[in-house]
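All the exercises in this workshop are built on plain-text protein records. Sequence and backbone structure share a record, each on its own labelled line. The question running through the whole workshop is how a given chain folds. The record below serves as our worked example for the rest of this section.
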Amino acid sequence: MFLSTIDRQLDGKRRIVLPVEFRAAVGPLDTLFCFPSIEADCLEGGGPDLLKTYDTLIDELPFGDPLRTAIETSVRGGFARLAWDPAGRVTLPDTQCQQFGLTDWVSVVGMGDRFQIWSKQAFAAHRESQRLFAREQMIALRLSQRTGPLAAAS
């Protein structure tokens, strides 16, 4: 499982050292990959389990469905295999680094079955907006849970 947020510096060859826990979560050294995230302006990465999740989603949609094509284009078309070097570093794809402004410091964000790689500055703003969104939605959820059984009893 990918957990936590860690800031790392990209070296001149676009390499970063991923946390040991992330490396352990992936398994064999050749099963890590990344692609442009569908939901945010960052890279999304993971191992075979994440790829299976997307494959299942794609296979549920009929051939020719615009959503299927969009997911295939984003995930399968953007797919890049990441390889570890002996020091535990991975090299991020040049075009994807350019696309998301990954030039110096990055934030590696664990999200359970996947992780994201953001520019450090972009993630700081995203994290704050997500925290505020989560707060608002939790309040709304709690209110609906409190009124749900009472409304049904009326």
